[in-house]
From TrEMBL:
Keywords: Amino-acid biosynthesis, ATP-binding, Cytoplasm, Kinase, Nucleotide-binding, Threonine biosynthesis, Transferase
Principal place of residence: cytoplasm
Molecular functions per Gene Ontology: ATP binding; homoserine kinase activity
UniProt similarity note: Belongs to the GHMP kinase family. Homoserine kinase subfamily.
GO biological process terms on file: threonine biosynthetic process
Involved pathway(s): Amino-acid biosynthesis; L-threonine biosynthesis; L-threonine from L-aspartate: step 4/5
Subcellular location: Cytoplasm
EC number assigned by the record: 2.7.1.39
Taxonomic lineage from the root: Bacteria, Pseudomonadati, Bacteroidota, Flavobacteriia, Flavobacteriales
Domain GHMP kinase C-terminal: 207-284
Protein name stated in the entry: Homoserine kinase
């Protein structure tokens, strides 16, 4: 018994939703093949595309699967093969895709003892291993699709939000690696009341914009007063890119997860392609190699 799956990339935070908001990209992701084995052991049997640990206690996919199996006291073994297309340290949920993909497939192969929402907490164990913090804003949308909002971590409560039909995401991935652990360590631990007011105003408005398909409001809400001002220092040409995509009609722009990838939300394919092209032109004479993706949210 085996299952082949697509494990999607995700954009976490979306500016004003640090650690609580994320969305799922439907055309960027990894492929995984999960098979039952008779060895009562969870093994990573093959990784192609990237250099990642094969030891079961060091790979996020096997760690997440073990958390699931422990919960139901199952000694079923699994072999996990990962064709890793999302680069680690890219900011589009590389570890989340592996953790979420693995628990999703294992749950199916076991006859679905859990629903997709239940799987979030197991996948979060992979995130804990990868970044030292069990955040859910990548694994939740990877498992549920669309937009996810973490209302509460303790107890865990995750909501799915609607996706306006014409919404597109352009992702620029400058090929430098920023570890989530490192880009979390530079964030200030205290927030001023003034910044907090701006942030929850924007986050509330963003949620409203998703329900009402108000693209302009969505664009106005994509600001981050708290984390982005600190993290953007790590991202090459952040300010210039922001100005460039805004001038070319993008709804909003920000850091994808913990970076270095940045995202632009756009309305419709035409605008998304235009934004993608101007970014490509801007970056092509810079010293840093890059990848560009255009995706729907699904
Ligand atoms: N919310 C997390 C962070 C996402 O920004 O650190 C990491 O991809």
């Amino acid at each position: 018994e085996e299952l082949k799956i697509f494990a999607p990339a995700t954009v976490a935070n979306l500016s004003c939703g640090f650690d609580v908001l994320g969305c799922c990209l439907d055309s960027v992701g990894d492929e995984m093949l999960i098979k039952k084995n008779d060895l009562k052991e969870v093994r990573i049997t093959r990784i192609t595309g990237q250099d990642l640990p094969m030891e079961a206690d060091k790979n996020v996919a096997s760690v997440a699967v073990k958390a699931l199996l422990e919960q139901i006291k199952s000694d079923q073994g699994f072999d996990i093969e990962i064709d890793k297309k999302i680069k680690p340290g890219s900011g589009i949920g590389s570890s989340a895709a592996s953790s979420a993909g693995a628990v999703f497939a294992v749950n199916k192969l076991l006859g679905e003892p859990f629903n997709n929402k239940d799987l979030i907490s197991f996948a979060m164990q992979g995130e804990l291993l990868a970044s030292g913090n069990a955040h859910a804003d990548n694994v939740a949308p990877a498992l549920l699709g669309g937009f996810s909002l973490v209302r509460s971590y303790c107890p865990l409560e995750v909501l799915s939000l609607p996706v306006p039909e014409e919404l597109r995401v352009v992702i620029l991935h400058p090929l430098i690696e920023i570890k989530t652990k490192d880009s979390r360590s530079i964030i200030k631990q205290n927030v001023s009341l003034k910044s907090a007011i701006n942030q929850w105003g924007n986050l509330g408005a963003l949620v409203s914009a998703l329900y009402t398909e108000d693209y302009d409001l969505l664009g106005r809400s994509l600001h981050d007063d708290i984390v982005e001002p600190v993290r953007s220092i790590l991202i090459p040409y952040f300010k210039e890119l922001d100005e460039l995509v805004t001038k070319n009609g993008a709804l909003g722009f920000g850091i994808s997860g913990s970076g270095p990838s940045v995202f632009a939300l756009c309305r419709g394919d035409e605008n998304a392609n235009k934004v993608k092209n101007v970014i490509s032109e801007f970056y092509s004479d810079k010293e840093i190699d890059f990848e560009l993706h255009l995706s729907s949210i699904n």
